[in-house]
Amino acid sequence: MAAQDKKRMLPASIAAMRSRKKQKLGGAGDRPVVPPQPAKTSVRSDTLAWKDVSLPDRLENYEGFFGLEEIDDVDVMKDDSTGKVSFLSSKPAHAAQVQPGGVNSGDEAQHGDDDGEEWSGFGDATQGAAAAAVLAPSRKVSAALKKPAKQRKQTKADEPPKKKKEGNSTAAFKTLTEELTAKEADVSAWRGLNLSPDTLSSLSELGFAKPTPIQRAAIPDILAGHDVIGKASTGSGKTLAFGIPILERFLELRSTSHRSNGAKAPLALILSPTRELAHQLDKHLTALCSHGLEDGPSIATLTGGLSMQKQERLLKYADIVIGTPGRLWEVMSAGQGTIKALQQIQFLVVDEADRLLSEGHFKEVEEILNALERDVDIDDDNEAAEEEQLAFSPGERARQTLIFSATFDRGLQRKLAGKGKSGGEPKINQDSMEYLLAKIKFREEQPKFVDVNPINQLATGLKEGLIECSGPEKDLYLYALLLLHRNTRALVFTNSIDAVRRITPLLQNLGLPAVALHSGMMQKARLRSIERFTQASNSGKPSSSILVATDVAARGLDIPNVKLGIHYHLPRAADTYVHRSGRTARAGQQGSSILICGPEEVAGVRRLVAKVHAQSAVAHEESVSEAAKQGYYIRTLDIDRRIVSRLKPRTVLAKKLADTVIAKEKAHKADEFFRSAAEELGVDYDSEEFEKTDNGRRGRGSKRKANEREAREFTKADVGAMRAELRALLAQRVNVGVSEKYLTSGGLDVEELLRQKEEGGDKGSGEFLGRVEGLGIE
Ligand SMILES: Nc1ncnc2c1ncn2[C@@H]1O[C@H](COP(=O)(O)OP(=O)(O)OP(=O)(O)O)[C@@H](O)[C@H]1O
Questions:
Q1: Number of CB atoms found within 10 A of residue 228's CB
Q2: Ranges assigned E (strand) in 406-478
Q3: How confident is the model at residue 644 (pLDDT cuts 50, 70, 90)?
Q4: Ligand 1 atom with the shortest distance to the CA of 214
Q5: What is the average pLDDT across 164-189?
Q6: Cβ neighbours of residue 310 under 8 Å, at least 6 residues apart?
């Protein structure tokens, strides 16, 4: 951009600055007091020491804007009557030409003479700081602000962040790490993988005596520099299957490279489909990298819901970057040099790859993959800097791509395993995993496909069963199941946020320790829920904790000792069933997965579960539907319905209470909304009148609306009375029909009932308990 162009644009930018300043100061009369300053002389704008301001890497939306310059310590004077502007500086720039008479000449002069109004910056600065936008030929002009450097709040922006120690990132996963920190183990079983002493000592401290099958199979291939697509059942240690080789490479580079403590290009980028999983990955890798290591890699986790500035700062100094696609793309697009830094990663990991493509992530994943390609976004004028940056990573090699999941689309699996049908290229569905794989530039033509569970996608310690009941009875059966698993960590899956919002208070009203998790919650509340859920039974003796969640909790979450997964709503797809069920029976433990189905859902769910079990058909080249036909038949659990029906009055009341509170909150919010809308329009709003009009409408949801209306009309006293009644019901013993022992408000005395059973007590009660606890399928 020629100096001439800058000069001609300045007046407009100053006008823009001036009008903003007026808004902020409320006119000249409100001008802040300017402290004494060194003598300043008038200089020409084009002779000032303008400095380039670095801009975000991607500027698609800036409409021709291609440069920004700033200047500090300059006062701008404007004559309101003539529009004439002059610049006063205490330290004229190298080439600054002081003008006789103190008035600018050149283009600025056409704005008239100076009448002395002093422009003193933008309100919170005592010294003016100006910045001029340098534009493309469209000649649009705008102005931007920057406080003088010395006045900028002393943030730690320019300092490398303190290295995160294990446990610092989010309290939510603290307990997870604590549980990881078991006793030191003999790690001789890892020897064959040729890991460094540092990594072995870390594994020993974590108590991981031997590699899991996916670790044993994938680590050598990754260390040998191959691209790897890894498939293994849920809870089988996939995180460390890619985490250990990343740590190995870090250690290798650390001992030979010029990596310093300053800003650097990251070594690995890990994409995660959910925020919770991203934070958990952080926790697992932090645990791996901080045990037994003096100076391990720095990890930055970029997820929505938390401070973007802080995450951007951490990113500058990170060796390993973990991110959800939305936030990562936001940071990449807005950052300065972020894309270039990320283009230098040596590992790209796509965790839970199939999920990344669903639920609206696809576009961002595609953008990220495009941007990561090295020939994209290279600024021609800046080739030298580019080369310098690329040279920064010593021994740089082409990026390795690692893709992991417990579930891959069957057709793709066959293809990856080299069993794909020969013949013409099939049309690739744009939302498919295959499409993603086509987008990724693997370093090898054929990535290694490592499948350690070709036959079984589900953990071996998992028991499955279903409970059949009518739709409206689902709450009742859920309550009964949870009562029967009183001292258990249980996860309840629903298909909607509304259901989580309804079921959580319902269970709480029934005295159960339920917490909610869904994507509509604030990020901090999400982490708090996981923390509460995780901590509840870490106190020593078993105690129950219940997480009611949408499928945001279905993938990857590694919460120890979850013994029961309940599908309150049926999973919509086979892979969702696998991942939901995979929250239990992890790392070789036992667990149960129970589906609560309406009568019309049973046939479909049987097919879905059979399909999951029929994965063996893929391995054996049979058709899945054939295998499903003769294959796995999920058992219906035999619950004593008479006993469950005795829990009905309390469940109905607890539901009514929960619905009342929700309806009142909803009404309050709607009322606020209409009131402020009416205010804006200048019309009267009468909520009762509005209600009457609304009542007149019939159609879908009118019964629900009628219930809501009824619930809204309950007074405080009504609600109080309902609570009292519920308390009384919960205090009553529920006769289990055949035993001296009862279900009470404090829950079920399972031990006592089981003891009775063992002692040959009443068979009926024991049957009820025994069948459900053991799922009747042993
Ligand atoms: N070698 C090992 N020995 C013992 N435990 C291990 C080992 N490797 C990992 N683990 C533990 O196993 C648990 C499950 O690991 P991880 O979360 O990596 O499973 P995953 O395969 O990624 O599961 P998902 O498919 O559900 O995401 C974790 O608690 C982890 O600490």
A1: 25
A2: 448-451, 462-468
A3: confident
A4: 21
A5: 54
A6: none
Give the Å distance between the CA of 453 and the centre of ligand 1.
Answer: 15
Over range 470-482, report the average pLDDT: 93
Query: What residues have CB less than 8 Å from 348, skipping those under 6 apart?
Result: 268, 269, 271, 372, 399, 400, 401, 402, 440
pLDDT tens profile 200-235: 989 998 999 999 999 999 999 999 999 999 988 888
Residue 302 is inside which H or E element, if any?
strand 299-302
Predicted confidence band at 580 (pLDDT cuts at 50, 70, 90)? very high
Protein residue with least CA distance to atom 29, ligand 1: 558
Q: In whole angstroms, how large is the CA radius of gyration of the chain?
A: 33
**Is the predicted pLDDT of residue 142 greater than 80, yes or no?**
no
Q: Which amino acid is at 458?
A: L
Tokens of 481: 């199941």
- Mean pLDDT score, 293-298: 80
pLDDT given at position 668: 66
371 token code pair = 């941007």
Report in angstroms the alpha-carbon separations of 436 from 271, 354, 406, 422, 441. Answer: 13, 9, 17, 21, 10
Write down the H helix ranges in 495-540. 497-509, 523-535
Give this complex's ipTM: 0.98
Write the residue with the smallest CA distance to atom 16 of ligand 1: 237
Instruction: Provide residues with CB under 6 Å of ligand 1.
Output: 180, 208, 211-212, 215, 232, 234-240, 406, 556, 558, 582, 586-587
- Residue whose entry in the numeric block shows the structure tokens 């970029």: 302
| Predicted TM-score of the model (pTM) | 0.63
Half-sphere exposure of 339 (CA within 13 A, CB side): 23
Asked if 190 and 244 count as a contact pair (C-beta separation under 8 A), the reply is no
CA of 161 to the centre of ligand 1 (A): 29
- List residues bridging with 119 in a β-sheet: 76
